[in-house]
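User: Here's a structure from my thesis project, written as structure tokens. My advisor, Dr. K., wants to see whether a designed sequence matches the one we expressed. Can you design one independently, without my sequence as a hint?
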């Protein structure tokens, strides 16, 4: 059984507003490869700039579209893991709870979390590359790329690519939440991609307790109020039991 310090339990029990930022690590135990974990990471076989940038899509839309279709395939086959369910449970115990995710797999919603702030979009949605509006249905023409039924421009995944801005409303809310929460949980993220990585520091600056859950150390670990070393699918269910059971 994972032991937690009395101080950590006390802080979580007293918290009126908990904010959470998750990264690919929270979906690792569901079988979705993370981006930067060596050997199994998604980037192990590809270079990000060759796939997840507007230039890559411009240069080779078919390759990019197929890579996302492959990732959508993986996502459609996996299920939330105990870490996702534990976060959905914490939402029931706290007066104010905000879940911010960098993940595009939709697993938090599947596990029952609501009002999830998707900083990097959602891989299961596609949008018109010209009008930037989500397109629910389109005619599949197998040899060519799917086109927007409204204006004919090619469709693209509704995810944020390197060099693109985050959805303004999502970022606004996330920054506000980081700046007003009592406790900020950073779970399963290497903290290497901005501006998401600055949310934990915004929380620290305004005096929130910051708790990191990650099997390895990151640049946040030494600054976190508590650093819980381990897998989120193991740690989070135990944390829920220790604090709210
Ligand atoms: P990374 O792949 O950079 O980091 C995954 C983190 O999860 C690492 O720190 C691992 O140690 C940790 N981890 C692995 N297994 C875990 C587990 N079972 N439980 C908890 N943590 C675990 O993924 P992100 O930090 O999410 O952005 O990457 C951030 C962004 O970079 C992504 O959203 C994506 C990528 O470029 C865009 O595509 C715009």
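Assistant: Designed independently from the structure alone:
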């Amino acid at each position: 059984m994972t032991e937690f310090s009395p101080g950590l339990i006390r802080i979580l029990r007293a918290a009126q507003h908990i904010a959470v930022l998750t990264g690919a690590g929270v979906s690792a135990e569901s079988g979705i490869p993370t981006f930067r974990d060596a050997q199994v990471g998604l980037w192990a076989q590809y270079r990000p700039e060759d796939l997840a940038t507007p230039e890559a899509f411009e240069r080779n839309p078919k390759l990019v579209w197929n890579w996302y279709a492959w990732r959508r395939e993986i996502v459609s086959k996996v299920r939330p893991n105990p870490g996702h369910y534990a976060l959905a449970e914490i939402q029931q115990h706290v007066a104010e709870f905000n879940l911010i995710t960098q993940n595009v797999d939709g697993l938090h919603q599947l596990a029952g979390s609501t009002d999830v702030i998707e900083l990097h979009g959602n891989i299961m949605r596609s949008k018109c590359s010209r009008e930037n509006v989500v397109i629910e249905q389109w005619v599949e023409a197998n040899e060519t790329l799917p086109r927007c039924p409204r204006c004919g421009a090619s469709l693209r995944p509704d995810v944020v690519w390197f060099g693109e801005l985050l959805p303004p409303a999502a970022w606004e809310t996330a920054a506000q939440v980081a700046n007003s929460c009592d406790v900020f949980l950073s779970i399963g993220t290497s903290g290497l991609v901005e501006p998401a990585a600055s949310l934990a520091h915004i929380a620290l600056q305004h005096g929130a307790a910051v708790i990191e859950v990650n099997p390895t150390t990151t640049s946040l670990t030494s600054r976190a109020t508590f650093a819980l070393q381990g897998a989120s699918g193991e740690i989070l269910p135990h944390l829920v039991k220790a604090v709210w059971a």
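When you compare it with your expressed construct, this may help: The longest strand covers residues 121-128.
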